[in-house]
Amino acid sequence: MSVRDRLAELGIELPKVPAPAGSYLPAVRTGSLVYTSGQVPIVDGEVVATGKVGADISPEFGAELARICALNALAAIDGFIGLDAVTRVVKVVGFVASAEGFTGQPGVINGASDVLAEIFGDAGRHARSAVGVAELPLGVPVEVELIVEVA
């Protein structure tokens, strides 16, 4: 089954690739790896939420935002090389703008990890970092970047 067929089966529509907010590319390839730039929760050109997880944003909503970030990263890959070229999700790096004392970053980034496993099955299981930070660009609560292997 193609990745497009799997997305349709799951009822997932990839968003348009968000325009870069700076001087960088949404994705680059070196050898058999594609790296995405950090993707934030933007839908239709608008930031979905701002604030810090553990204060302004619940961990559950943070996980939903991480899912959006992962889908934006997939859109960047799709626009660059096509999702059917992806053979494995290698690594997810997730950043969570965290309120003081908040330590649930892994649960928040599960939102990204879970959707990748839904889409790619075992090939979507990956290594991961979930990092708490003081601030993120545009005031968003979550940012996600991917490294994938391609054919």
Automatic annotation (TrEMBL):
Residues 6-146 form the Endoribonuclease L-PSP/chorismate mutase-like domain. This is Enamine deaminase RidA, house cleaning of reactive enamine intermediates, YjgF/YER057c/UK114 family. CDD domains: YjgF_YER057c_UK114_like_1. It holds the Pfam family YjgF_endoribonc. Coiled coil: none annotated. InterPro entries: Endoribo_LPSP/chorism_mut-like, RutC-like_sf. PANTHER family: ENDORIBONUCLEASE L-PSP_CHORISMATE MUTASE-LIKE DOMAIN-CONTAINING PROTEIN, ENDORIBONUCLEASE-RELATED. It comes from Actinokineospora alba. It comes from the Bacteria.
